[in-house]
């Protein structure tokens, strides 16, 4: 269809909204309530445009304009909200660029929105990143005609431990309310009262933990603030580092905001293929540990006590500790959130040392990457017509996958892809979008997803899959029927079913997938388990798995905390003094996942890049540099000494070129190279002990007391 925007004619797909048409034409429309991943509501009235369409005669021909010889355009008498209007063939749209009426209407609307706004800009956390501030400059009158005392409402009003609401600043765009209804499917927030008294609040009990932090990203003003980050800095003071979250295998795109070397804030970064615009609460709020009580220098044990030393001192201590032993006696264990490059470096060193004791953790001991219908992507999940989740607690294992499944339940309409604008998938104004729970079956233990599933079957352990294949209850029969009857079905597998699964499990799954035509998404145990599984990072013949670290003659343990030490020399590489580090002979300071460059592979098999945020980590080093130091102590030349060397080796080993990946990552099917028994059950836990939040300790003493709970604000000002 052809649409004319400010005199520019363009070709657009049918169903495009008028606001998108403007952005596609390279124009601009101010908006507050519209949001790419939420349904349109037309609440803020900022996106006004003039619009007109040709009209047809009874015989189907166009009413013609005598002056131009073209179809006559019949204009709506008043400006219209473009976010709730569908562009139609032949439509003409005028924005403020070409219409004085629109410019005046928008300036008037801005004046109205600011009528009772507190104008906290000098103190508001959102200052410098506020849509209202920006649009007031661009589209407002520049001066206010109102000199009266503004309405006052609650400030610093906690909706939960994590989210603070400033009711005065709220412009009633309803994004936060719609988000809860439409994305996690929780009706917990709403408008209370009417007219000038309207405010946002929750039911008693506050916001549910899981995905609540996303409302702080989408609030267009500073009304909803991240309590872990607020008052920590202004937007322009932060170093913004786009990177990937390594807390779970989804690998959400995030931006790490650091100030003066401290990690102050994490916000979601859009990645349409992975996390869309959302991240989970652990990913957003669980970062304080990264700048708290860090190890910044190496430690060595002297007379039974750990004492600070230099890297040279630590290398000498390793050399002394390994005296009389072979390099082959040193076991090497790394966390499964380590990057591909780190894994490649560790494997190369293990080969050079000749050690059999190598492992990464957490992992499962079954390879599931050869399924007949291929591996499902997150977009496949969102657009599937049936999902059967077996043995997974997504809240702990892969939270954003839960949101993508909920997206599937409400129709799986992904927003169209535009370079600009507020692509909106569905222009029907629907409150509380209908969900179809019959498209979701959950087999396993009770979890948050149960509440959304139409078919629920209790079953524990890895025989859940066998029971699903040969159903012995009505629920399991219904789940199998759902898989069989659907054209785009997905089987999602989680920890409960993957723990202890062996080769016969893979065969069973493959058989089920063949029978039903379903794609498979097996949730890996660690953030980069899928990447590391493509390397030979499992015990070699006669080697000790990570579960038996206590039997190892000597061990190097990178960012794992088994709570025991090896029989002989124990070297721990970690960012914090964990229980294991306290038992170690040598502790080498490690960077966190926010401070290194490298590549991880998410649950879809998507390669995603990590970038290094500007955090003060003292002398902490990533695994590649640390392994160089260990090699030096062992008298070996490190086979890999830096990121480039690791990438070159990865290219040879895996046939992939790392570095310079597209922002959304790329899917690259990596096959599991080797499997071996783990001898240990993996229990997924998203909020690890070190991340446990304590809002009180997170807020520095000089900022307390905050007028949060109880204290009634006087006059409404800060
Ligand atoms: S939301 Fe904050 S920054 Fe924006 S105009 Fe209001 S007070 Fe100023
Ligand atoms: S709190 Fe923010 S997102 Fe929610 S309605 Fe108010 S301005 Fe909109
Ligand atoms: S009415 Fe708010 S963006 Fe259109």
UniProtKB/TrEMBL annotation:
Name of the gene encoding the protein in the UniProt record: nuoG
Organism from which the protein derives: Deinococcus radiopugnans ATCC 19172
UniProt record, GO biological process: ATP synthesis coupled electron transport
Residues in 4Fe-4S His(Cys)3-ligated-type domain copies: 101-140
EC number(s) given by UniProt: 7.1.1.-
GO molecular function, one term: quinone binding
Protein name: NADH-quinone oxidoreductase
UniProt keyword annotation of Ligase present: no
Family: Belongs to the complex I 75 kDa subunit family.
């Amino acid at each position: 269809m052809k649409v004319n925007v400010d005199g520019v004619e363009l070709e657009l797909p049918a169903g495009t909204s008028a606001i998108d048409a403007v952005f596609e034409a390279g124009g601009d429309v101010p908006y507050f309530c519209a949001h790419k991943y939420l349904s349109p509501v037309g609440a803020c009235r900022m996106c006004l445009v003039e619009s007109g369409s040709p009209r047809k005669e009874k015989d189907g021909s166009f009413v013609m304009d005598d002056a131009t010889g073209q179809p006559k355009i019949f204009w709506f008498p008043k400006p219209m909200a473009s976010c709730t209007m569908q562009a139609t063939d032949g439509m003409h749209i005028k924005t403020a660029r070409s219409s004085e009426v629109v410019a005046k209407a928008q300036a008037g609307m801005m004046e109205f929105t600011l009528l009772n706004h507190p104008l906290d800009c000098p103190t508001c956390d959102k200052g410098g990143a506020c849509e209202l501030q920006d649009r007031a400059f661009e589209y407002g009158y520049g001066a206010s005609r109102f000199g009266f005392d503004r309405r006052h409402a609650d400030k610093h009003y906690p909706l939960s431990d994590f989210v603070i609401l400033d009711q005065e600043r709220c412009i009633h765009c309803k994004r936060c309310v719609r988000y809860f209804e439409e994305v996690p499917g929780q009706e917990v927030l709403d408008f209370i009262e009417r007219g000038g008294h309207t405010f946002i609040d929750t039911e008693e009990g506050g916001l549910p933990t899981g995905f609540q932090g996303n409302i702080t990203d989408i609030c267009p003003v500073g009304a909803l603030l991240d309590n872990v980050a607020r008052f920590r800095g202004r937007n322009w003071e932060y170093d913004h580092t786009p990177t990937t979250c390594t807390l779970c295998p989804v690998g959400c795109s995030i931006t790490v905001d650091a100030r003066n070397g401290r990690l102050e804030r994490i916000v979601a970064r859009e990645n349409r293929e992975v996390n869309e615009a959302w991240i989970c609460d652990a990913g957003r709020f669980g970062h304080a540990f990264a700048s708290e009580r860090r190890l910044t220098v190496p430690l060595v044990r002297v007379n039974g006590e750990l004492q600070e030393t230099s890297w040279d001192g630590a290398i000498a201590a390793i050399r002394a500790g390994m005296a009389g032993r072979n390099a082959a006696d040193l076991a090497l264990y790394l966390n499964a959130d380590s990057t591909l490059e780190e894994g490649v470096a560790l494997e190369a060193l293990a080969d050079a040392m000749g050690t059999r004791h190598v492992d990464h953790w957490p992992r499962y001991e079954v390879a599931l990457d050869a399924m007949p219908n291929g591996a499902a992507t997150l977009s496949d999940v969102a657009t599937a017509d049936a999902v059967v989740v077996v043995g997974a607690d997504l809240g702990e294992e892969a939270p954003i996958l839960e949101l993508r499944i909920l997206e599937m339940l409400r129709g799986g309409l992904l927003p169209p892809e535009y370079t600009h604008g507020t692509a909106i998938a569905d222009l029907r104004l629907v409150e509380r979008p209908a969900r179809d729970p019959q498209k979701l079956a959950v087999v396993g233990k009770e979890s948050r997803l149960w509440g959304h599933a139409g078919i629920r079957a209790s079953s524990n352990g890895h025989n859940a899959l066998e029971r699903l294949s040969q159903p012995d209850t009505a629920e399991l029969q219904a789940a199998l029927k759902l898989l069989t009857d659907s054209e785009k079905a997905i089987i999602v597998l989680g920890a409960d079913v993957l723990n202890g699964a062996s080769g016969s499990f893979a065969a069973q799954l493959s058989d089920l997938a063949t029978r039903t035509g379903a794609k498979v998404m097996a949730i890996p145990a660690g953030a980069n388990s899928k990447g590391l599984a493509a390397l030979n990072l499992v015990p070699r013949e006669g080697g000790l798995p990570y579960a038996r670290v206590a039997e190892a003659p000597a061990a190097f343990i990178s960012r794992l905390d088994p709570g025991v030490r090896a029989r002989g020399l124990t070297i721990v590489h970690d960012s914090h003094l964990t229980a294991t580090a306290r038992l170690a002979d040598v502790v080498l300071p490690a960077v966190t996942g926010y401070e290194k460059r490298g590549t991880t592979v998410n649950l879809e098999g998507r390669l995603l890049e990590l970038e290094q945020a500007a955090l003060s980590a003292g002398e902490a080093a990533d695994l590649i540099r640390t392994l160089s130091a260990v090699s030096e102590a062992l008298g070996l030349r490190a086979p890999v000494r830096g990121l480039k060397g690791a990438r070159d080796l990865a290219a040879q080993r895996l046939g992939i070129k790392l570095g310079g990946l597209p922002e959304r990552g790329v899917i690259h099917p990596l096959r599991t190279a080797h499997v071996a028994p783990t001898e240990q059950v993996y229990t997924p836990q998203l909020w690890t002990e070190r991340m446990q939040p304590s809002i009180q300790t997170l807020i520095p003493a000089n900022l307390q007391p905050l007028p949060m709970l109880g204290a009634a604000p006087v006059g409404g000002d800060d």
